[in-house]
Amino acid sequence: MTDTDLHDALRAGVRALCERYPGSYWRDLDERRAYPEGFVRAMTEAGYLSALIPPEYGGGGLGVTEASIILEEVNRSGGNAGACHAQMYTMGTVLRHGSEEQKRRYLAEIAKGSLRLQSFGVTEPDAGSDTLSISTSAVRDGDVYIVNGQKIWNSRAEYSDLMLLLVRTTPKAEVQRRTEGLSVFLVEIRSSLGKGLTIQPIKTMLNHFTTQVFFEDLQVPAENLVGEEGQGFRYILDGMNAERVLIAAECIGDGDWFIEKATAYAKGRQVFGRPIGQNQGVQFPIAQAYARIRAADLMRYKAAALFDAGQPCGPEANMAKLLGAEASWEAANVCLQTHGGFGFAREFDIERKFRETRLYQVAPVSTNLILAYLGQNVLGMPRSY
């Protein structure tokens, strides 16, 4: 099977699965702020959420390119892949830096669906996007680490069995390099609740299952340390680059959904005796948004190819996320404007998708921080922070 055949088969399979979960399914969840349990279970049983797990552990053994296609199709079908994507992008850290014992212990269960790894604990209230300034600590005490601190914007912690957690194991004042002193752990959420781990939901403008997590003398087995102590920041960069590629793909999916909706409505909606799409004031913005989605798509594939080849891809992954987020937001605005008042009606799903795709201008990394990264680390201009 060629890559093209594989990708076509993935698209067709995901699209067929998503047909069982139409807009009414997602509208109901959005209204109730409920987790898409049935959808996640179906994606797991079909093998899509274990796409990146090697075959020897029960997974599909595919690359980030294929994982991005899976998530793209979910969003293009009108759904929201946010409930699934963390299980994919955290794999970059576990697969590349986890021990063989950790892989045997967790990956087969994740592939089967008996365990979920959908929670990524990095951001803190005081540090924000300044990851190197996090203060949640883990102190070694014999065979365990004692964890204290807080994480915020930690999505899906209530619905995950495992959390990939970044903490400080060496005080910031004692490290020689800013990137040292951070470590990664796999935390078993279910057995930790009430024993030093507390999860508190945060209500937001979209149904994203967002929480803040508190740690108070939580004991984490030393064997759950991923890789070497103090090297965690380097490890999570793999996950962050994968995350940016996958989010870019979700944006592409959103963008295509908006373009398809806007185009169909512009063709069919008659005002003043002719379809509104005949007017260049309606037609041109849709065409412009479509062109920008296609351009962002090219950068997504470039970044994914580099990641899958094991090559540095930081600039490409960040640009893919930046361009994808901006293109999908442009498409969302165009779609809403094309539909006029109907765009605000819940039954059209546009207002829901509008809210969902707006998130990616801010998270998982804001567009301003990506521009700063490119300006300083790619173009060599003076640091602004």
Would you mind describing this structure in some detail?
With 385 residues, the protein is α+β, with helices and mostly antiparallel strands. It has three domains: 3-112, Butyryl-Coa Dehydrogenase, subunit A, domain 1 (Orthogonal Bundle); 117-230, Butyryl-CoA Dehydrogenase, subunit A, domain 2; 234-378, Butyryl-CoA Dehydrogenase, subunit A, domain 3 (Up-down Bundle), CATH 1.20.140. It has 13 helices and ten strands. The strands form three sheets. It has a four-stranded mixed sheet. Strands 2-3-7-6 form a four-stranded antiparallel sheet, with no helix packed on it. A two-stranded antiparallel sheet has the order 9-10. Helix 9 packs parallel to helix 11 (314-339).
**Number of domain modules:** 3
CATH class of the largest domain: Mainly Alpha
Summing up helix and strand content along with how strands pair, one would put the structural category as alpha+beta
Rg estimate, integer Å: 21 Å
Order of helices and strands: HHHHHHHEEEEEHEEEHEEHHHH
DSSP helix fraction: 40-55%
CATH architecture of the largest domain: Up-down Bundle
**Share of residues in strands:** 5-15%
Task: Report the major sheet.
Answer: 4 strands, mixed
What topology, given as strand order, has the largest sheet? 1-4-5-8
What would you call the shape?
globular
The overall average pLDDT, rounded, is 95
Q: What ranges have pLDDT less than 50 throughout 5 or more consecutive residues?
A: none
How far apart lie the N and C ends? Answer: 48 Å
Q: How many DSSP E strands?
A: 10
Q: In CATH terms, what is the fold-level topology of the largest domain?
A: Butyryl-CoA Dehydrogenase, subunit A, domain 3
Q: What is the CATH superfamily classification of the largest domain?
A: Butyryl-CoA Dehydrogenase, subunit A, domain 3
- Continuous helix count: 13
